[in-house]
């Protein structure tokens, strides 16, 4: 086997002795101690003297900081070559790059070159590449330009194929970041094919790629992030142009210290600046101005013709929708004020939110009342499984997260909350504090003091996240406290509020939403202008752990406007992130943030694409199924809906009253009183026994006097006990309990406590059963044997405790029945089923024990189970109707975003400033077009998306591409093309196009490599052909000869080359446009050198200057009348902004010319093409000497935009163009390749321009003739006066 050595003793940049490359398998020797390889030999090493262990480094040292700084400085330089490589490989089969790579140096004669040897990793093998870098193109740039990513920022010794890295990153998104597993798998694949890595001792290295692969994956992903953010900035700039604006409004003055954030910053870096949420902010891309409707909970009085808010499409609506409020963005008349006018108000969400969930944040009008569900529904929750050990070594910061909030922002919110708790606001609570206290004590997340993670071992206890109702994550926060404090939920919610309009209303679902709502109500955690736009509820799965009175107000199924939003969206996010728990626990802290942030972004992008599936599932399994079930329950109930609503209002009023919660406070005092009563009963029994014994002469009669004293004391104690009972104000708090036996009251209060205990135990047991069922059904992670046994053991313990609690409760119910008197109207609670399955479906489990007498006619919901079932069905039917309307609005939002995003992407593709991002933008365009089918629903069907697509694509380009195979008409003279294979491409062994002539650029401009005999022979048989015979009349008018195009076979005979001057002046030559008489181009020494050399590539000044020179020559000929129909534009005005095009072309009377010549320089391809534009006929004739058609797909929209910009300006100046409404037609003028090398494209374009000026469509020349034509152009340029041609 062959061996390759890479000795570490050699300086960087100097190659080790070369050896044959292991093409068909072989061993590679690598040195020990390499910074990029972890050498672990298979053999056991010899015993070495024990060394003192080094202290583990927890923070990055200066060397690591310098390494990461070099990486950060390198990445921006890799963007352009990487994009060029990606574009060159788009749609092509991957091929391995050659073994010898060289930099494309701009100044090869002055640039110092250095040779490197790099081991390159590919899919099935690795091999050693020899790479020549220079000062202007370093080794990493040369590598990335050929599809190889370095593993070190300076002089890397290993590089990895970007296709291989793309595959690894795609696998990581679906599994986890297992660098070691990937490295081992790659090494095993290599070894199975005979590619073995050895160290300098000849020992096989077990993990030769782990460290280098880890670096490459990390920094390659950072390169992708940099490019993604550039692409997003390009799309965002176009997207913001269609942002709706309100009329100008007068706002309070803004503090000069406040700085508005931009959209680009919002998409990459989260603003750390803390400001009051009610502080006025200037309008910008990510923030909006104060609302016009300050109180969204207030239902405004309807006007004579109220305007609906985003009226959705609702199929088959059988029930009336809740009334909509008038448009809150209506501007009142402005009065005179001294406050400054800051301009129009923005009325939509920031793009960072809009792009993450178009369904939630795509509203046109904001400010929907909270009684109707508000504008958006969000869910917040924490997870303490994503912990991070404290003693894990950290790396320098290398990634700016998009989703993770900065620690400084979260801590600032926590400090603000602590300060706000010192100032209590007195407000009437919606739910009594006793109920909220009970919920807070029963939840681990209810109080931030509950320790969930040992912070001595972990520096991060978990994660908190805020997610929209479509399961799309918006932001996450790192938990660094032992418990789940409120600052995390507040910081996440505040981050969203800052990116929404000032009148946006938000519903937030949280496990302990009741506790957070009380904190917001009692303390100024949010300003009043914000807190009144917030509504809190509990998540549906956790709501059943709350006591019944709390559920009446916070359960989303009992709250108006919330539809079928369940609030468990964060749990589904934790399920998607669970694979990162083990990976991130011991990772570096900054690497952990990178992994989590990128994984969250991947989840968000995937779920945005599944919005259509989400909507269809909600319509069928959500609305349709629940609606059918609710209608069946209502029919079975047999009670009118109006009566059920009256019963619900009465139930909520009764059970949320403060009097309903007095038993909790009264219970302890009653227990003390009942203890005294037990003592009284025992003493009374003793007195009675003693009296009987005296009467039966068992005791002497002398005891009678003492017995009377004891009886008097007993009567006094009994009277005191009655006074104590009266002092409890039971009759005042519960007047209906007047005269009720004290034992009965005590028992019913005891039952109330017992049932609450049963409810808590039942909820906990149901949770364990659900966890096991979901794992068995495949909805959740499969449980291992140990975890399965643990769950089963916990279930058995909880089931036993639950059964005992239910039995005791039922026993107390029977005892209460025995104590109840016949005239008592207090309802007796129903016994509970002892079976877990029956208990889970019981409708009375969550009902509270009623302690007041009730009227069986007015309080039927207390005694009648059918009425209770009917109330639940009524709620479910209301929620289904609300959900249907919300789904309709969300479907409209998605269509609206699709239209704006598609327009923005298309405009970004057309923008010449984004030429390097074309490939990525086109991929985004394809992904968007795929959404038209994925997002189609019965609310907004696929046809609407297709119509929207046609409207945008037709409105932007209006081009019908007709790639016609033209038959060439001979324009006179004999065709010089004699070899039928003359148009074959010349390629090297690697399949790449090469030049036939490898000559270099000459030093002297008059040192020509042309044969003078070639020039003379072309003038022997000169034939005069007038443009009237064969001209471009076919172009300006309808083609009379079908698809036949005129071929210019006598182009060289039409030009008389002047003699070479005796000396060439180095003074630049100014070339003026013959139409405007303004400077068009400058031919300096560099341009003349390019023109004189057969291998010189013509730049913009060469092509633009010679084009107007040819135009001037033919304007001075006998064909002036025909040539005056032409106008030549500069290539420098193409792909510029509309303002730039008008500024540089307004001096040209282009509206008087019907044939426009536009040379086009494609800098990314280093290739010249030509467009002949007929604006009156809306035709474009395209000339490409390579006969390629794919690249024109990108140029044609820009050509149309160029023409329309000039036409609009001409019309504004009183020169309306006489154009038709027909679509544009673009046709190539050649169907097979004319150019064989890679340098003469500019000369071919000038030949095509000359053919057009002579009245032909296409030149007919050989490679030899094009070289002669170049010499003619050179001589013409030398005869241009150095003082300028006017």
Automatic annotation (TrEMBL):
Compositionally biased intervals (Basic and acidic residues): 48-59
GO MF, any single term: ubiquitin-like protein peptidase activity
Stretches for region Disordered: 1-59, 247-341
UniProt KW Transport keyword: no
Biased composition (Polar residues): 1-12, 330-340
Alphabetical list of InterPro entries matching this protein: KDZ (IPR040521), Papain-like_cys_pep_sf (IPR038765), Peptidase_C48_C (IPR003653)
Keywords: Hydrolase, Protease
Residue ranges, compositional bias (Low complexity): 247-268
Domain Ubiquitin-like protease family profile: 1081-1252
GO biological process, one term: proteolysis
Annotated family: Belongs to the peptidase C48 family.
Protein name listed in UniProt: Ubiquitin-like protease family profile domain-containing protein
Source organism: Ephemerocybe angulata
């Amino acid at each position: 086997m062959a061996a390759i050595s890479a000795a570490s003793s050699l300086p960087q940049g100097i190659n080790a002795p070369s050896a044959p490359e292991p093409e068909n398998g072989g061993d590679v020797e690598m040195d020990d101690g390499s910074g990029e390889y972890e050498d672990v030999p298979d053999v056991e090493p010899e015993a070495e003297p024990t060394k003192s262990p080094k202290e583990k480094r927890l923070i990055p040292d200066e060397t690591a900081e310098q390494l990461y700084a070099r990486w950060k400085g390198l990445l921006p330089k890799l963007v352009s070559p990487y994009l060029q490589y990606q574009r060159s490989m788009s749609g092509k089969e991957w091929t391995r790059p050659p073994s010898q790579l060289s930099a494309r140096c701009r100044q090869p004669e002055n640039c110092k070159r250095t040779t490197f040897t790099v081991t390159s990793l590919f899919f099935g093998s690795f091999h050693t590449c020899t790479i020549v870098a220079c000062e202007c193109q370093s080794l990493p740039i040369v590598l990335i330009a050929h599809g190889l990513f370095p593993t070190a920022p300076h002089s890397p010794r290993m590089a990895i194929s970007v296709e291989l890295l793309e595959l690894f990153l795609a696998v990581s998104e679906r599994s986890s970041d297992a660098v070691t597993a990937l490295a081992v798998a790659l090494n095993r694949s290599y070894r199975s094919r005979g590619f073995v890595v050895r160290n300098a001792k000849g020992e096989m290295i077990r993990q030769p790629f782990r460290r280098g692969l880890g670096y490459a994956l990390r920094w390659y992903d950072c390169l992708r992030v940099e490019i993604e953010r550039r692409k997003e900035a390009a799309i965002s700039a176009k997207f913001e142009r269609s942002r709706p604006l309100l009329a100008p409004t007068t706002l309070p003055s803004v503090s000069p210290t406040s700085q508005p954030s931009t959209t680009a910053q919002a998409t990459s870096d989260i603003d750390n600046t803390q400001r009051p949420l009610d502080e006025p902010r200037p309008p910008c891309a990510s923030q909006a101005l104060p609302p016009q409707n300050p109180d969204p909970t207030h239902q405004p009085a309807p006007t004579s013709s109220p305007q609906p808010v985003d009226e959705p499409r609702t199929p088959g609506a059988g029930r009336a929708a809740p009334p909509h409020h008038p448009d809150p963005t209506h501007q009142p008349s402005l009065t005179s004020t001294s406050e400054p006018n800051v301009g129009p108000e923005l009325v939509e969400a920031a793009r960072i939110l809009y792009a993450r969930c178009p369904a939630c944040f795509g509203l046109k009008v904001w400010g929907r009342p909270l009684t109707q569900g508000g504008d958006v529904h969000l869910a917040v929750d924490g997870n303490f499984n994503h912990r991070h050990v404290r003693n894990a070594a950290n790396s320098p910061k290398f990634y700016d997260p998009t989703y993770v909030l900065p620690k400084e922002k979260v801590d600032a919110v926590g400090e603000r909350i602590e300060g706000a708790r010192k100032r209590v606001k007195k407000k009437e609570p919606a739910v009594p504090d006793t109920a909220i206290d009970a919920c807070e004590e029963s939840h681990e997340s209810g109080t931030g003091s509950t320790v969930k993670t040992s912070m001595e071992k972990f520096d991060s206890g978990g994660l908190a996240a805020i997610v929209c109702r479509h399961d799309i994550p918006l932001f996450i926060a790192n938990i660094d406290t032992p418990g789940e404090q409120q600052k995390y939920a507040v910081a996440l919610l505040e981050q969203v509020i800052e990116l929404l309009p000032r009148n946006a209303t938000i519903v937030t679902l949280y496990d302990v939403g009741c506790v957070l709502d009380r904190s917001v109500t009692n303390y100024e955690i949010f300003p009043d202008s914000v807190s009144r736009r917030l509504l809190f509820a509990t998540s549906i799965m956790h709501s059943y752990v709350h006591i019944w009175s709390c559920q009446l107000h916070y359960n989303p199924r009992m709250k108006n406007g919330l539809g079928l939003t369940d609030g468990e969206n964060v749990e589904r996010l934790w399920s998607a992130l669970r694979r990162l728990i083990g990976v991130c626990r011991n990772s570096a802290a900054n690497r952990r943030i990178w992994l989590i942030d990128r994984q969250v972004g991947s989840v968000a992008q995937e779920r945005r694409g599944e919005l259509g599936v989400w909507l269809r599932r909600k319509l069928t399994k959500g609305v349709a199924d629940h609606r059918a079930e609710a209608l069946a329950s209502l029919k079975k109930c047999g009670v009118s809906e109006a009566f059920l609503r009256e019963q619900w209002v009465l139930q909520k009023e009764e059970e949320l009253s403060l009097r309903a919660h007095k038993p909790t406070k009264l219970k302890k005092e009653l227990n003390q009183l009942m203890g005294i009563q037990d003592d009284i009963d025992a003493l009374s029994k003793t007195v009675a026994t003693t009296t009987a014994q005296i009467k039966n002469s068992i005791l002497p009669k002398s005891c009678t006097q003492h017995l009377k004293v004891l009886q008097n004391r007993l009567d006094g104690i009994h009277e005191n006990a009655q006074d104590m009972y009266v002092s409890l104000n039971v009759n005042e708090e519960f007047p209906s309990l007047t005269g009720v036996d004290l034992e009965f009251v005590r028992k019913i209060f005891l039952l109330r406590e017992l049932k609450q205990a049963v409810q808590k135990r039942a909820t906990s047991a149901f949770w364990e059963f659900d966890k096991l069922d979901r794992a068995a059904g495949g909805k959740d992670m499969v449980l291992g044997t140990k975890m399965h046994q643990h769950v089963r053991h916990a279930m058995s313990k909880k089931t036993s405790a639950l059964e005992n609690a239910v039995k005791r409760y039922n026993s107390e119910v029977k005892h209460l029945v025995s104590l109840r008197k016949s005239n008592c109207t207090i309802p007796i609670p129903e016994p509970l089923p002892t079976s877990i399955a029956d208990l889970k479906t019981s409708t009375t489990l969550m009902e509270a024990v009623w302690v007041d007498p009730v009227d069986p006619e007015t309080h039927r919901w207390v005694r009648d189970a059918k009425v209770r079932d009917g109330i639940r069905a009524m709620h479910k039917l209301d929620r289904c109707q609300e959900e249907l309307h919300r789904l309709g609005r969300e479907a409209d939002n998605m269509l609206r975003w699709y239209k704006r995003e598609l327009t923005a992407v298309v405009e970004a593709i057309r923008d010449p400033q984004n030429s390097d991002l074309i490939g990525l933008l086109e991929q985004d365009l394809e992904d968007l077009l795929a959404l038209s089918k994925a997002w189609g629903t019965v609310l907004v069907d696929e046809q609407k998306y297709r119509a929207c697509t046609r409207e945008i694509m037709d409105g932007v380009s209006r081009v019908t591409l007709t790639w016609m195979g033209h038959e060439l008409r001979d324009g006179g003279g004999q065709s010089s093309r004699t070899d039928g294979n003359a148009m074959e491409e010349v390629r090297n062994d690697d399949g790449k196009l090469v030049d036939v002539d490898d000559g270099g650029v000459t030093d002297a401009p008059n040192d020509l490599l042309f044969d003078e005999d070639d020039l003379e022979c072309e003038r022997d048989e000169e034939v005069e052909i007038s443009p009237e015979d064969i001209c471009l009349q076919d172009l300006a008018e309808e083609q009379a000869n079908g698809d036949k195009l005129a071929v210019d076979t006598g182009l060289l005979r039409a030009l008389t080359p002047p003699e070479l001057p005796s000396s060439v002046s180095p003074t630049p030559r100014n070339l003026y446009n013959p139409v405007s008489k303004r400077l068009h181009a400058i031919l300096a020494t560099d341009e003349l050198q390019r023109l004189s050399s057969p291998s010189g590539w013509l730049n913009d000044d060469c092509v633009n200057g010679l084009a107007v020179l040819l135009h001037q020559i033919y304007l001075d000929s006998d064909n002036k009348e025909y040539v005056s129909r032409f106008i030549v534009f500069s290539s420098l005005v193409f792909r510029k902004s509309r303002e730039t095009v008008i500024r540089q072309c307004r001096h040209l009377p282009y509206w008087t010319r019907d044939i426009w010549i536009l040379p086009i320089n494609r800098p990314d391809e280093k290739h010249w093409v030509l467009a002949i534009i007929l604006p009156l006929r809306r035709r474009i004739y395209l000339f490409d000497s390579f006969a390629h058609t794919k690249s024109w797909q990108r140029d044609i929209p820009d050509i149309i935009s160029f023409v329309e910009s000039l036409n609009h300006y001409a019309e504004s100046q009183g020169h309306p163009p006489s154009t038709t409404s027909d679509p544009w037609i673009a046709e190539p003028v050649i169907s097979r390749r004319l150019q064989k090398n890679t340098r003469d494209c500019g000369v071919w374009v000038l030949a095509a321009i000359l053919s057009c000026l002579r009245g032909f469509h296409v030149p007919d020349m050989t490679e030899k003739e094009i070289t002669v034509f170049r010499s003619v152009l050179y001589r013409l340029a030398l005869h241009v006066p150095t003082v300028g041609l006017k």
